[in-house]
TrEMBL record:
Signal peptide: none annotated. It holds the Pfam family DUF498. InterPro entries: MTH938-like_sf, NDUFAF3/AAMDC. It comes from Wohlfahrtiimonas chitiniclastica. This is NADH dehydrogenase [ubiquinone] 1 alpha subcomplex assembly factor 3. The lineage of its organism: Bacteria, Pseudomonadati, Pseudomonadota, Gammaproteobacteria, Cardiobacteriales. PANTHER family: NADH DEHYDROGENASE [UBIQUINONE] 1 ALPHA SUBCOMPLEX ASSEMBLY FACTOR 3, NUCLEAR PROTEIN E3-3.
Amino acid sequence: MIEHDDSQNVGTSNLRKEDPGYLAIKRYDDSGFTLTDDAHYVGSIVLYKNDVYDTLAPTDFTQLTDKHFRSWCSLKPEMILIGTGNKHHFLSPEHMAYFYTQGIGIETMRTDSACRTYSVIAGEMRNALVVLFPAQG
């Protein structure tokens, strides 16, 4: 019997393949993410500068608070990508303005798009942080 695998592969950039610490999203499914080091995380995660933070994001997008935003900004990224799950959700204009006043670009998109976009941006060695909520959200 053949098992059905609902996970999705994500292409990674060739620019940093030789960097042993380079982390990007290799696969994702409805419950979590597998990174290029083959570590699997269940639930939401934050990736920044080859580090994984599994405590800097709530379970789903609707639970985000100013505390989360401040913790991300304290890491000093140039830009933040938020993968909001299966559906695209938007931040409020006030929250968008907060990031802009910090000099940080911010984009929300579906999780599948955020995985692909982050892999390209991180592969270009840009200073980006990605917040990923599982695709089920």
